[in-house]
Design a protein that fits this description.
- With about 300 residues, the protein is of the alpha/beta class.
- About 40% of the residues lie in helices and about 10% in strands.
- It has one domain (about 10-300): Alpha-Beta Barrel (TIM Barrel).
- An eight-stranded parallel sheet has the order 1-2-3-4-5-6-7-8.
- α9 (about 205-215) links the parallel β6 (about 195) and β7 (about 215-220).
C-alpha cells in the first residue's frame, strides 16, 4: 500500500543476473566452476533463464508489482532476457547491454531489432570506454530508430556491487559519463526514446539540462541514489526539481533490483513514496511515475511494429 492507496507499480530498472552473467564472473575470477562463486558471493545462482524468470514473476506477485524491465547485465546475453520476456510477455520488457567497441555490435543490434522480445538497447560509455559521439555508435542508433528500440545510456558514476564483492576491478573512464554528450544525438534522433538512469548518477544538473532540451529523454529514478552525496541534495529535492523542470510524465520509477535472495528492493520504493508524498504529490502524478509512464513509454513502440513479417 502507498500513501495514495493502491496504484499500479511498474519497475523500469531490474537487472537479470542470468547463469551466463555468473559464468562470466567465474571466468574473470579464474574459477573452474560457477558453483565456486558460492563461498565468495552468498547469492542464489539460477540454473536457467527460465528458472530465474519464474522467480522474478513470483517475486513481483508477492510485492504487488505489475511489470518490470529486465536488463541483461553482460554484453552478449540478449538470449537470456529474451527468453524471460517470451515466457512472460505481459510481465517483462527486455533490455540488453551492448559494447559498441566490439566488432559484432552492428550484427547484435540488427538481430535485436528483429526480436519482438527485446525492447531497449543499453549503453555504458564509461564502463566500455567509448564516447557517445564515437562514429561506431551512429549506425547502432540508426538501427534503434528503424527498429523502434529505446536506448538506455548510463551516465555519471558507475559502481558495480557484485564486482566489488568478488574483488574484481571496474575500469571506467568518467570522461564519457556526461549526460550532455547525448544532447546533439537526442536531437539528431528525435524518434528514439532515450533513458538516463539514476537521475544522471551524480550529474543531476546535466541530466536535467538534457531532459529539458530534449523531449525524447526520460529519467529513471532507480538505485539508492548515493550519488546525492555529490550534489548536496536529498531525494525529495531531487524529485521536486525534476518535476518542476520536466514534469512528472518523463520520470520512470525504478529500483535497480538485481539478486536473490534479496529480490525486489522494496526499500527503494518506500523511500521514493515517502519523498514524493512529502512534496504533496497527488495520486494522479504518483500513478504516472510509479506505473503509467512506463506503460506509455513502451506503448509508443507496440510489439506488433517489431514483429515484422
Amino acid at each position: 500500500m502507498t500513501p495514495w492507496g493502491p496504484i499500479p507499480v511498474h519497475d523500469a530498472h531490474v537487472h537479470f543476473f542470468s547463469p551466463a552473467f555468473y559464468s562470466g564472473l567465474r571466468k574473470q575470477k579464474g574459477l573452474e566452476d560457477t558453483a565456486d562463486l558460492a563461498p565468495l558471493l552468498p547469492w542464489q545462482i539460477p540454473a536457467s533463464p527460465a528458472e530465474l524468470a519464474g522467480r522474478w514473476v513470483a517475486e513481483l506477485d508477492l510485492r504487488g508489482v505489475d511489470r518490470c524491465c529486465l536488463i541483461a547485465s553482460a554484453p552478449g546475453d540478449e538470449a537470456s532476457v529474451a527468453a524471460a520476456v517470451a515466457a512472460y510477455p505481459q510481465r517483462f520488457f527486455g533490455h540488453f547491454m551492448l559494447d559498441p567497441t566490439q566488432p559484432d555490435a552492428v550484427e547484435r543490434v540488427t538481430a535485436a531489432a528483429a526480436n519482438p522480445h527485446l525492447h531497449c538497447l543499453c549503453l555504458f560509455p564509461a564502463l566500455h570506454r567509448f564516447s557517445m559521439q564515437d562514429a561506431r555508435v551512429t549506425p547502432l542508433l540508426e538501427l534503434a530508430a528503424s527498429g523502434n528500440l529505446a536506448v538506455f545510456v548510463h551516465c555519471g558514476v558507475i559502481s558495480i556491487g557484485v564486482r566489488k564483492k568478488l574483488g574484481l576491478p571496474t575500469l571506467c573512464d568518467m570522461r564519457f559519463s556526461n549526460p550532455l554528450d547525448l544532447h546533439s544525438i537526442a536531437l539528431r534522433f528525435p524518434t528514439v526514446r532515450f533513458i538516463v538512469p539514476h537521475f544522471g548518477a551524480g550529474m543531476f544538473r546535466e541530466a536535467l539540462m538534457l531532459a529539458d532540451l530534449c523531449p525524447n529523454v526520460w529519467l529513471d529514478t532507480s538505485s539508492t541514489n548515493r550519488w546525492m552525496d555529490y550534489e548536496g541534495l536529498d531525494l525529495a529535492r531531487i524529485f521536486r526539481r525534476s518535476i518542476d523542470l520536466i514534469g512528472s510524465a518523463r520520470l520512470l520509477f525504478g529500483t535497480d533490483s538485481s539478486f536473490f535472495p534479496r529480490g525486489w528492493n522494496a526499500s527503494v520504493f518506500e523511500q521514493q513514496c515517502a519523498a514524493l508524498h512529502s512534496l504533496g504529490l497527488g495520486a494522479s502524478e504518483a500513478r504516472q511515475i510509479f506505473g503509467e509512464n512506463l506503460g506509455r513509454f513502451y506503448a509508443l513502440r507496440p510489439d506488433i511494429i517489431r514483429a515484422r513479417s
